[in-house]
Amino acid sequence: MTMWIPNLEAFPGPRYQALATAIETAIQTGELPVGAKLPPQRNLAWKLGVTVGTVSRGYMLAEQKGLLSGEVGRGTFVKPYDGLSGNTGFRSEIVAPLGEIPRLGTPGVIELSRNEPSLPDFEDIMRSSLQRLSMRGGLQNLLGYSRTLGDPAHRAAAAAWIGRVGLSVTPEQVIATAGAQQALAIVMTAMTMPNEVMLVESLTYGGVHENAQQRPIRLEAVAMDDEGMRPDALAEAARRTGSRLVLIQPTIHNPTTVMMTAERRAAIIAVARKHDLTIIEDDVYGFLMQDRPLPIAALAPERTIYITSASKCMAPGLRVGWIAAPPVLVERFADALHAVAVNNPRLNQEIVRQWIEDGTADMLVNRLREEAAIRNAIAAEVFDGLTMRSHPASLHCYLELPNPWRPNEFTNQALGQGVRIASCTSFLLDSRPNPPPWVRVSLAPSPDRSEVADGLRRLRSLIERGPEARHAVV
C-alpha cells in the first residue's frame, strides 16, 4: 500500500490539529478504510517536514476522537467507524459535511430592521473559537445542566467584563441569562405583581412591550427630551401612579440614539431616591462607547438592577446576557430564572467566557466601534439634508420623514422597494392616529457595507419620490 501522506495546508489550525482533521476527513471519504495502518510517526514526520512530537500529538488527538487505536509493536490503525464504535459514539451522518450554514433572511430584501452587529470576518472568528474550544478537555461537561445562576467561572468572567464600563460588581452579584430579553423578563417577574405599573421612556423597544404583556404589567410612558427621560416627568409619574419601578436606557437609547449626560443621570437618581424607585438600567449598547458616562448602577448601586448582554457588542446568536443586581435581590432572580428555564446553556456561556479571557471580546468591541462609525458616516452622507439622529457608536439611526410621509406608510412602501425597516409605532406605548414621522434604520445586520449602502439609497430615493397616490374607490 502506498504511504498515506496528507496535505496539511488544506486544513486550518496548528499542524497537529490539521493532521487529526486530515485523518478524520480521510476516514469519512474512504481514503483510510477501517483497519488501515497509518504510517509510522517518524516516517510521516519526515515526509511532512514536521517534528515527531507534532505527529504524535495529531495521532493522539485522533485517537481521543475514537478514530484510531494504537497497538504496541504493531502500529496505529483506523478503528471501525459505524456510528456506535469507539469512545465517542459519533454518528457518521453527524460528522459528515452538511454544507454551508445558511444566512437567515428574506430573499430579495435588505434587512435594516434588526439591531444586530455583523463583521466580515465573523466566519474566521467563530471557526477559530470552536477549534480552540474543541482542543480542551471536559467538553462533555458543557452538555450537562448548569447552576441556575450560572457557572462560577462564567459569572467571574462576566463580572470582569462588566467592570470595563466602570461598574464594579462581584461574581456573586451576576446572574447568567439567555440574552437581555430573558434578563428583563426575569426582573419583571421577580419585581412586579400582575397589573402593577412600571415606568418607561415614552419610546421603548418591542421587547419591553412583549414582556409587559406576558406578565402582565402596565407600562406608563415618561416624557423624554434630547438627554433622555426627563427628571420632572419621572417625578410626576411616580407621584401619580405610585409605581416602584422604572426602566431606563441611558446609553445609546433605542430608537432615538439619545445619550443621557452624567448630570441627567444624577438628576434621575435623585428622583428615584426621593420616590423610592428601583431602577432597571438597560445597558446593552454601553460597551460600544469608548468614552461614556458611568452606568447609573455605579452611581446608585443600592437601587439599580443592571442588564447587559453580548448581543450588541459580540454576537446576538449566542444568546448570552447578564443581570448584575444588589445582593439582596440575587436569590429572588434565581427563583424566577429557575421557574422559566432551570438554567441556561453552558456551551454558549463558555464561548463568551473564552472570548472575554483571551481578548477576542475586546477585539470584537473595537472592530464594531470602527464599523459603526463607518456605517453612520455612510448614513449621514446618504441622508444629507434630512433630519437624522445618530451616534458614531450606534448600530442604528433614527430618521425623520418629511411631509407628507407617515411612518407606517413609509415602512410598507420601503418593503416594496426591498428594504425592511422599523416604524416609530413599534416603539410607542399607544396607538395614536397621527404618530410622529420617524423610522428606525439599522445599519449593521449585513457584513456587506455595500448592501447596507444600497438599502439606504433606496430609502432616500423613496423619500424623494413621495408616497404613492391613493385612488378613491367608486
Overall description:
This protein has 474 residues and is of the alpha/beta class. It has three domains: 8-95, Winged helix-like DNA-binding domain superfamily/Winged helix DNA-binding domain (Arc Repressor Mutant, subunit A, Orthogonal Bundle), CATH 1.10.10; 126-358, Aspartate Aminotransferase, domain 2, CATH 3.40.640.10; 363-465, Alpha-Beta Complex (Aspartate Aminotransferase, domain 1), CATH 3.90.1150. It is built from 16 helices and 17 strands. Strand 9 (245-248), helix 10 (262-274) and strand 10 (278-282) form a beta-alpha-beta unit. Helix 6 (152-162) crosses helix 13 (346-358) and helix 7 crosses helix 12 (330-341). The longest helix has 23 residues, at 360-382.
Task: Give descriptors for this structure.
alpha/beta, 5-stranded mixed beta sheet, Aspartate Aminotransferase, domain 1, 474 residues, 3 domains, 40% helix, 4-stranded antiparallel beta sheet, Arc Repressor Mutant, subunit A, 17 strands, Aspartate Aminotransferase, domain 2
